[in-house]
Amino acid sequence: MKHTLARLLRRGTKGDQVADSTPEASAATATAKATAAEPRTRFGAWLGRPMTSFHLIIAIAALLTTLGLIMVLSASGVRSYDDDGSAWVIFGRQVLWTIVGLFACYLALRLPVRFMRRLAFSGFAATIAMLVLVLIPGIGKEANGSRGWFVIAGFSMQPSELTKIAFAIWGAHLLAARRMERASLREMLIPLVPAAVIALALIVAQPDLGQTVSMSIILLGLLWYAGLPLRVFLSSLFAAIVAGAILAVSAGYRSDRVRSWLDPGQDPQDSGYQARQAKYALANGGIFGDGLGQGTAKWNYLPNAHNDFIFAIIGEELGLVGALGLLGLFGLFAYTGMRIARRSADPFLRLLTATTTLWVIGQSFINVGYVIGLLPVTGIQLPLISAGGTSTATTLLMIGMMANAARHEPEAVAALRAGRDDRMTRILRLPLPEPYSPTRVEALRDRLRSKPQPAKPQRAAKQKPSGGRAARSARPPAVDRRGTGAGHHVGGQRYTGQRHGHGRRALEGQRHG
Is a pLDDT exceeding 70 seen at residue 440? Predict the structure, then answer.
């Protein structure tokens, strides 16, 4: 009986194996595996779609821009009525600059990547010339102790905002063209750092501490994401902090801000008045706020309520819930920017997207930090929220470049070029993105660096003709130890080409994950 049952079990197992070997069974097995590999939730499936990054960045930009216009209208009405006799003047200017920014965003979406890189250096040189012109009396206008504005037909424009964009694009192009995963330290620092020092010196001459800090964030972001050695990056960061501290105490009004930050009760009616009123506005808002348009701090209690301190008005009118919602939007922006940078195949777009994300989030952190009292007042605006025409337009331009990078993700390129329908692409009438291919210079440099170098032949030891003495004096050839020491010197030259051990830093593009 036992033998009969064993035979039946063997026959059943063999029958199952034969049945599984049929095409229908194979297809069923493959379908089961694919179903198991699919995301278990709809949200996970949506995140895995090719165009998710593009839709996310467009949606976040739309929400931030809309919220910014609403809060500028609410916070600027009293100031606008006092200055111009109408509650709509500041809001009208912000709307016009937002339209300019949306047009620039659309152009950046349609701009080919190669064309963008081709104009990178000339654009940066043009902005440097503008920084020089704005310092000339009669051409540049002075406002709030800083000569950093062009005024044309009643509209003011800040060239330092354009300089930040041009420097970010040119820096990303420069570092990507030199293939930073194999570049030496000198290739990373020159000519990027000298050009940044020139731009920073011109901005400091205005003087404008906020733009100086923003420019420094872009420079450090480029170097960090390009793979700067950690010790050099930390020393550069320390030098930037020391320089910022020196600038903060070099002028009278800036040193007063620092002292009022260190001791808020020292002068509550003068240097500490603005920060104190911002805290009062946040406290009055409570959990759910007083209601949109119902705040009292904007009634000439809080200076610059529509600009630098608009986050205090958001906290007062929308409460803690609204403030946390705004911070959540910026957090989602950070996630989307790093997602695009991580998924990009083009090193230029990877560097540009990561640096732009760091720049926007860094400015947001500094603005919210000094409004709630964690940092001294620097005058940095809240991106897309504060009233500032040039800042809003330039931020929208950079977001357009990030959206362009999202459409150039490999999966997005494959889906769009395969004919997959995307409603947003169809509405905006965007051209098909081109797949990434290295430029001729990059490909040639990669081939030259990957070409194996011939090994140096060892010199044979000279043998003397004498018999026994030659045998005793025969020694192994002398080894030149000059190139094997800790200093990596070969023949008096510094050797930097083959540092592949543990000390090697992460490659460019691997800091976004």
Answer: no
DSSP-assigned beta bridge partners for residue 147: 142
Q: Quick one: residue 154, left, alpha or beta (phi over 0 = left, psi -120 to 50 = alpha)?
A: left
Asked if residues 308 and 386 have their Cβ atoms less than 8 Å apart, the reply is yes
Which residues, 6+ apart, have CB-to-CB distance to 214 below 8 Å? 164, 359, 362, 363, 380
The string of pLDDT tens digits covering residues 351-406 is 999 999 999 999 999 999 999 988 888 888 999 999 988 899 999 999 999 999 99
**What Å distances lie between residue 424 and 56, 341, 396, 452, CA to CA?**
12, 21, 17, 48
Give the mean model confidence (pLDDT) for residues 284-307: 90
Q: Is the pTM of this model over 0.85?
A: no
pLDDT tens, residue by residue, 260-274: 777 777 767 777 788
Mean pLDDT of 193-209: 89
Q: Identify the CA nearest to 497 among candidates 224, 187, 183, 190.
A: 183
Say which residues have a Cβ less than 8 Å from residue 279's Cβ, sequence separation at least 6: 312, 372, 373
Residue 478 zone, left/alpha/beta (φ > 0; ψ -120 to 50; rest): beta
Neighbours of 367 (CB within 10 A): 25
Instruction: Name 490's bridge partners.
Output: 493
Token code pair at residue 389 = 């025409």
Residue type, 229: P
Contacts of residue 78, defined as CB under 8 A and 6 or more positions apart, other chains included, come to 87, 298, 299, 300
Q: Which of 107, 322, 388 is nearest to 311 (CA)?
A: 322
483: pLDDT strictly greater than 90: no
Q: Are 379 and 209 in contact (CB under 8 A)?
A: yes
Give the span between the Cα atoms of 149 and 445, in whole angstroms.
42
Nearest to 222 by CA among 189, 182, 186: 189
Phi, psi of 120 (to 5 degrees): -65, -50
User: Exposure string (b/e) for 161-185, b if CB count within 10 Å is 16 or more?
Assistant: bbbbbbbbbbbbbbbbbbbbbebee
Q: How many CB atoms lie within 10 A of CB 290?
A: 17
Measured in Å, how far apart are the chain's first and last C-alpha atoms? 63
SS3 label, residue 8: helix
Burial 257-268 (b: 16+ CB within 10 A, else e): bebbbeeeeeee
Query: What percentage of residues in the chain have a pLDDT greater than 70?
Result: 75
Q: Percentage of residues in the chain with pLDDT exceeding 90?
A: 41
- In whole angstroms, what is the distance from residue 183 CA to residue 483 CA? 21
